[in-house]
């Protein structure tokens, strides 16, 4: 708008009244700009309550999906762990039968003494004879591995996890 082509030390050729007019004009322009900035700042809207509630609801749904998926993955891990334990126990039982040349005595199996025999022979820890899911959920009642494997039915009571 206004241009001063003055070099340092050289007068621009403007009088004080012209400079005063220019300063007032500049101040007026800058105050108008500040007003526009205020209008822009105050005209920006924030989130409404309904938008906030919808956002929280969406986050809640996604969180529940994530927790369900993590629970299934944990159950799958317990299933694999349990299957591995049962595979080791059956291999040890079969190896014992092959080595002895005969099946283990039924009374020994029924009373749960086969657990002690297998533990001593193979050096297994107690955790192998308990379901990892039962341990994680603290559903293991009082008792020992021998009691867990005593026959309460033809299948025993080891909790083998299956797909639901």
Automatic annotation (TrEMBL):
From what organism does this protein derive?
A: marine metagenome
Entry keywords, A to Z: Membrane, Transmembrane, Transmembrane helix
- Say yes or no: keyword Glycoprotein present: no
Protein's UniProt name: Type II secretion system protein GspG C-terminal domain-containing protein
Q: Which InterPro entries match?
A: N_methyl_site, Pilin-like
Check the record and name the Gene3D superfamilies matching this protein. Answer: Glycoprotein, Type 4 Pilin
- Asked whether the UniProt record includes Membrane among its keywords, one would answer yes
> Which residues are listed as membrane-spanning?
46-67
């Amino acid at each position: 708008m206004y241009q001063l082509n003055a070099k340092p030390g050289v007068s621009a050729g403007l009088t004080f009244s012209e400079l005063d007019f220019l300063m007032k004009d500049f101040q007026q322009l800058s105050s108008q700009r500040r007003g526009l900035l205020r209008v822009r700042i105050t005209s920006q809207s924030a989130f409404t309550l309904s938008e906030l509630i919808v956002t929280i609801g969406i986050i809640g749904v996604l969180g529940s999906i994530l927790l369900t998926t993590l629970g299934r993955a944990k159950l799958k891990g317990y299933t694999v762990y349990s299957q591995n334990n049962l595979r080791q126990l059956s291999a040890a039982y079969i190896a014992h039968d092959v080595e002895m040349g005969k099946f283990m005595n039924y009374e020994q199996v029924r009373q749960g003494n086969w657990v002690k025999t297998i533990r001593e022979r193979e050096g297994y820890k107690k955790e192998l004879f308990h379901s990892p899911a039962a341990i994680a959920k603290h559903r293991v009642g009082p008792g020992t591995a021998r009691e867990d494997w005593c026959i309460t039915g033809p299948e025993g009571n080891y909790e083998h996890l299956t797909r639901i």
